[in-house]
Amino acid sequence: MFRSATHAAALLFATVVSVEAAEVTAGDLTIASPVIVKSFAKARAAGGYMTVANSGDKPDLLLGVSVEGPMAMIHESREEGGIMRMVHLDAVEIPAGETVAFAPGGLHVMIMGLQPDDLPVGDTLDAVLTFDRAGEVAVTFRVEALPVDGPGGGTGHGDAMN
Q: For all residues of the chain together, what is the average pLDDT?
């Protein structure tokens, strides 16, 4: 019993540390829960998600994302004429006093040029987010498994080869 309780406490502590480590603050901005999800194991692209909260009284702009190795761009999934499309964005405004979610089916960081075995579940990818006011902010995206709630797991990055 003692071993089980100790093990449970260790797992709880590891989870709390992991959650806390995923949050980065730079000036008035807080970047939380940066994760990457691949639509299938051998995918050559993946979606990056996070939230960016601006506690300041002035807006900021996310101008770009860089990672070592693959290419990273800011994209938005939009419905146009009944068809979902991914559109490259030059910048995303983070309004003062608001939180912007990079989430499946909307804003996301598109990671492209992956090799088939890149970014297995549990891996991490270091990135630099470049903001107009906050400057360069280092974050670490954690690679998570694809949710199983339908084609593409709701990521907008589904593929018939799943």
A: 82
